[in-house]
Amino acid sequence: MNEINFLDLPxxxxxxxLPQAEVKAKKITINKCKLLKKELExxxxxxxxxxxxxxxxxxxxxxxxxxxxxxxNQYILLTGYxxxxxxxxxxxxxxxxxxxxxxxxxxxxxxxxxxxxxKEKIKTNIQYVLFGRVSYYKNYYIAHPxxxxxxxxxxxxxxxxxxxxxxxxxxxxxxxxxxxxxxSFIKIVLPQAMKYIKEPYPNELLKDAKLxxxxxxxxxxxxxxxxxxxxxxxxxxxxxxxxxxxIFYAYQNVVRDKQQTPYRFTKVGxxxxxxxxxxxxxxxxxxxKKVIREIWEDLRSGRQMNRLLQGDVGSGKTIVALMSILxxxxxxxxxxxxxxxELLAQQHFKTISKLLKxxxxxxxxxxxxxxxxxxxxxxxxxxEGKINILxxxxxxxxxxxxxxxxxxxxxxxxxRFGVIQRAKLHLKSDYPPHVLVMTAxxxxxxxxxxxxxxxxxxxxxELPPNRKPVKTIYLPSTLRYQAWDLMRNEIKKGHQxxxxxxxxxxxxxxxxxxxTEGYDAIIAEFPPPQYSIAMIHGRMSSxxxxxxxxxxxxxxxxxxxxxxxxxxxxxxxNASLMIIENAERFGLAQLHQMRGRxxxxxxxxxxxxxxxxxxxxxxxxxxxxxxETTDGFKIAEEDYRLRGPGEIEGVRQxxxxxxxxxxxxxDQHLIEYSNKFAQELICKDPLLEKxxxxxxxxxxxxxxxxxxxxxxxx
Length: 714
Ligand code: ADP
Ligand code: MG
Prior knowledge:
This protein is α/β, with parallel strands linked by helices. The protein has a seven-stranded parallel sheet, sandwiched between helices. Strands 16-21-20-17-19-18 form a six-stranded parallel sheet, sandwiched between helices. Strands 2-3-4-6-5 form a five-stranded mixed beta barrel. Strand 3 (93-102) and strand 4 (105-111) form a beta hairpin. The two termini are 32 Å apart. Residues 646-657 and 708-714 have low confidence and may be disordered. Residues 282-285, 288, 311, 313-319, 440, 464, 569, 571, 573, 600 line the site of adenosine-5'-diphosphate (ADP).
């Protein structure tokens, strides 16, 4: 049996290879293994030993009862004798009390319920060990402590190390796998697992980064003798979590760079130049020029491009995408541009068609609602190479969509696309085409290292000239009229406005009520025909939505009452006001996206966040962050801090299993520190061929396996 085998065995199989006497004694059964899988996704031995305790109790030392008051609200370990028991009325209920004594004094032990067993089981002539939390009501007391005879306690190993507490679930606890049950299981498994855990790191790394060995780390993250031991173990585990992913990405990037791709773009051709000289409606910003150069370097390198283009909302990513596409077409290839929503795909289609007017380029659109008939000849044209640019939604990654020679794929607003979709695109041709992923930085900087570690990063760090930051104002709902005054004013100036309502689930009819009520209220305040108002939401057909957006973009609609369908990418520069109702219901990153719909011209724009009626102090505090900054990076980090990684769209939807023990905000330093070591190693030996680096391949192999299983889903 090799290393991978035992650690990666399903638990129910692995337990047959454990010392059977212990397995029996601790009542470890196949059913419990199955339950672990169901409840905590613990499937293998590796999963189990990676289920780390979240805190520890200290049962290493008896405390004196006399000193109990020093440990108010903390857990302490006592040993001594029960003197007496008695029942007492406490308010409406009856409780059981015991007086427990050691040489230093006495303390009350209280049972509030289920105490029938106490008098029967507990003797006054036997020495006990108690473990519980010190509380206070008239006197110091301990309620429902753990009780063991001293003899039993000494037989157990509890006092030999810090006592680990594991997270579990109600169902597991009922089945005997409470924290202690899980601890016993791990205790049996760990010594066996140790035989198969091999140190993947070279000695120099252990030494330079001051890491304990992997086996020591596993031992001490579960059963440390001292706090210091635990800290060292935790540090090693965190380091590994970051380093392993980074060495994997770094190695993959080296391998990828060594592979030649047939998509070597050799020339900046006629199309690109003609567009640049005659069609470009504005001067590119310095940052746009810089990233186009970076992209071009990739495209001509003979290696497959995997690049992330980060640029805040409104920084002008679309034109960069288009110019990259022209480079592909100039070199005889097709390109596709994928957007997260139909609305956005349609908008890209229009913008790009308009920009390319008069140039010999065929652009087409494929979305979910494209009629079958049109779809049929579109697919034929695509395969014959008659279409140069295909724009669309997820529909583009369906298998029936086949290109003649797809050379470049652009994915807009990446946070809606996952690794899986990206992987599917790679299957569109014999060799993976060049890939450019565009995002408005929805995730904190340090996460980029890990979530997008397989991508090279380009940043547009400047907005087009003459943009004024959007003025953001928070208003409680009682002051809504101020927002309406402002709206009246803006419309008078010839501008347009969005009013957004949060609909959690647009598929449910109920939720439309907020929107339609809001619509009615606005109509009452802004009566037609003086004002022109329209409503747009996710349950309309895409034609309807399309029509409304068209009128809005032409300035025929003053106020667009909308749901978050307008969140991403919509570009109507004449709109200068964004009012968001019940703003507290949105994440900061989402608010930032919506705010990005205005402020797209040189005119001053406004965003008004209206709080709901029962808004909490916390929520107001969160919204104030939006008022204070327009920096997308900062907002993403705040959002992370406040809501945790699971709520960050870029992370949740990246489809990647994420950090287990690292806290990407508080451990930023560690992430960067470990990254430094990974980069140094790869620099020294890009393919990790030196004998002492060979073992690092086991890490890489494991990630490869995970990635393959990921990309083969669906
Ligand atoms: P995003 O990066 O959010 O996708 P867009 O590509 O939609 O931004 O661009 C936002 C707006 O800025 C569009 O109206 C676009 O035409 C305009 N724009 C882009 N680049 C420039 C530039 N260099 N100068 C002036 N306006 C620009
Ligand atoms: Mg965009």
